[in-house]
Design brief:
- This protein is mainly α and 546 residues long.
- The chain contains 17 helices and 16 strands.
- The strands form seven sheets. A three-stranded mixed β-sheet has the order 2-3-16. Strands 8-7-9 form a three-stranded antiparallel β-sheet. It has a two-stranded antiparallel ribbon with strand order 1-6.
- Helix 6 packs antiparallel against helix 7, helix 12 packs antiparallel against helix 13 and helix 12 runs antiparallel to helix 14.
């Protein structure tokens, strides 16, 4: 999409100005253009579609900043720096329904949904030449994929949510109540099936349908839709895990769809794990979907909350991911020589120039996963794409579904695929900003005797070690049900060095936020701004406990 913006960007912005009316609490595009004077041809439909993608990368909303906070803080992999009260409300479970990131992400999600609905509905009124129908269907499929993606986030964060399926022309006559999560999931699945049938292949794939060009990097692909569908099936299976037992039909669907992605061979594991998290690694065939940022095109990324060198002569920079720190539990689950440990976590102290002095005996563990080999533009403007989905995630979806289905050997094989790549990845050389050969020993191979709950626990922590700080943590702990959620989030250890209390002993103690965590936290509260200030959504009662 970075190249796409060079062609469509200005027109897309003009279209959005013409068709949108926003405020901070109620982000609802209201059409000022009739279908007679816009969306009159395929090119205009494509420009409108760029406007849908644009919402993903808004500076403080959506994936620009809000998503990474609420999907990462307060999980089994990440907490936040002490002393930052604003950040700690999420990480330490002291938040309420006035949380800024909540209403920003909620508003941005529905803003994208409204834009997608406009493209979908206006396309239905557009008559095109027969040779343009495949392009028209692909554009609609992109809109439906992004709409499904937003609803998938909303339903995982908030449960029952308003389900708006069509463009809202007259807001005053509209009322959208919350609907059951099961209905939202069915709508998501319907959208993704359409997307799977009508999207194009990634640019490097040749097949029975068209492939995108090199300039289309960042668009949803057939494989992207398949991967997200596998994740949706896995999550849908867990909805009733505490009350009705396993829903094997959805676990089977997740297993089958993830296996399809793996069998197709369109995506592959990047040989060197650390390469993925540099600007140079953004074109890796492991990435299935990223949010595209480009400072030169006035679309800078601030999603990580950059913390690093600001001088002109510094060779290395890194993000601290919205001021996050790794949990002690995550550190303890890494094998000592796992290359992913040094790629992901800077355990030690900061030097005067903001580089890291590594010391594994120090327990201040900065997020060090996303790195830059050139100076960034400013403290909060970079070209680093935000992560959404990569092939390793789908392999781990396959492993988890297999474990629930009792297909232990398949789960073991999938975990070993992930560990084999990690084992053969290089160690990051801080002095030369390069990768060196690892010892080829850690992480160790999977224990083939693991089964049942023991195998699922292994998968939980394999997901954490592989995907930490990529926006999967909170969805993982929510998906495992109330009991496991409390265990993973509340019953962790922390190190008293992090309290900055000079009188404290060095022995690990329970996390200070453990007593705050309650079953109600599996779902977020509906934002207060939406309950009080939104004229077109009928929220009704808030989630239980809020």
């Amino acid at each position: 999409m970075k190249n796409i913006y060079k062609y469509y960007g200005i027109l897309a912005v003009l279209l959005l100005i013409a068709t949108s009316c926003h405020d901070e609490l109620e982000k609802l595009p209201v059409s000022n253009l009739s279908q007679d004077n816009y969306y009159t041809n395929i090119e205009e439909l494509g420009i409108g579609m760029v406007g849908v993608y644009d919402e993903l990368a808004q500076s403080k909303d959506g994936y620009g900043e809000a998503f990474i906070k609420i999907a990462t803080h307060g999980t089994h992999v990440a907490t936040t720096f002490l002393g930052n009260v604003k950040q700690n409300t999420q990480a330490w479970y002291t938040f309420d329904n006035t949380e800024e990131s909540f209403w920003r992400f909620w508003g941005s999600s529905y803003s994208l949904i409204y834009r997608a609905n406009q493209v979908i509905d206006r396309s239905a009124q557009l008559i095109v030449a027969p040779d343009e129908q495949i392009v028209q269907n692909r554009i609609v499929a992109e809109a439906r994929f992004l709409r499904a993606s937003m609803y998938f986030n909303l339903v995982r964060f908030w449960g029952d949510v308003p389900l708006i399926k069509e463009e809202l022309i007259n807001v005053g006559n509209s009322s959208s109540p919350r609907v059951a999560a099961e209905e939202v999931y069915e709508f998501i699945i319907e959208d993704l099936k359409f997307a799977e049938e009508n999207l194009y292949y990634a640019s490097w794939v040749a097949g029975d349908r068209p492939s995108y060009g090199e300039a289309d990097l960042g668009r949803a692909t057939i494989g992207t839709a398949q991967g997200l569908l596998a994740k949706v099936y896995l999550t849908r299976a867990s909805l009733n895990i505490d009350t009705s037992g396993l829903d094997n039909s959805y676990y089977q669907l997740a297993y089958d769809k993830a296996q399809e992605v793996m069998t197709d061979g369109h995506y592959q594991l990047e040989p060197n794990y650390g390469t993925l998290f540099t600007v140079a690694g953004e074109r890796s065939h492991e990435w299935m979907f990223q949010i595209q940022f480009d400072f030169e095109l006035l679309q800078p990324g601030i999603w990580g909350g950059v913390n690093g060198p600001k001088g002109n002569n510094k060779a290395l920079d890194w993000t601290n991911l919205a001021r996050s720190m790794a949990t002690l539990e995550l550190l303890n689950h890494y094998d000592d020589d796992d290359p992913r440990y040094q790629h992901n976590i800077a355990q030690g102290t900061l030097n005067a120039d903001n580089s890291v002095k590594y010391n594994k005996n120090q327990n201040k563990s900065y997020v060090h996963k996303f790195r830059f080999t050139t100076k960034f533009n400013s403290a909060f403007n970079t070209d680093m794409n935000a992560p959404v989905m990569r092939y390793a995630d789908i392999i781990l979806v396959y492993a988890e579904a297999a474990a629930y289905l009792g297909l232990d050997t398949d789960a073991h094989d999938a975990l070993d695929m992930i560990r084999d790549r990690a084992r053969n990845s290089g160690i990051f050389d801080l002095n030369n900003v390069d990768f060196l050969a690892s010892d080829g020993i850690s992480p160790t191979a999977v224990d083939r005797s693991l089964t049942g709950e023991d195998l699922l626990d292994e998968i939980i922590w394999d997901r954490a070690k592989e995907l930490c700080f990529e926006g999967t943590g909170k969805f993982d702990v929510f998906r495992y049900g109330e009991t496991k959620f409390i265990e993973l989030v509340a019953n962790q250890l922390w190190d008293t060095d992090l309290t900055q209390d000079t009188n404290a002993s060095n022995s690990p103690k329970p996390v200070p936020w453990g007593g705050n965590v309650q079953p109600k936290h599996i779902l977020f509260p509906i934002p207060e701004a939406e309950i009080r200030g939104n004229s077109f959504i009928n929220i009704g009662d808030n989630n239980e406990g809020w």
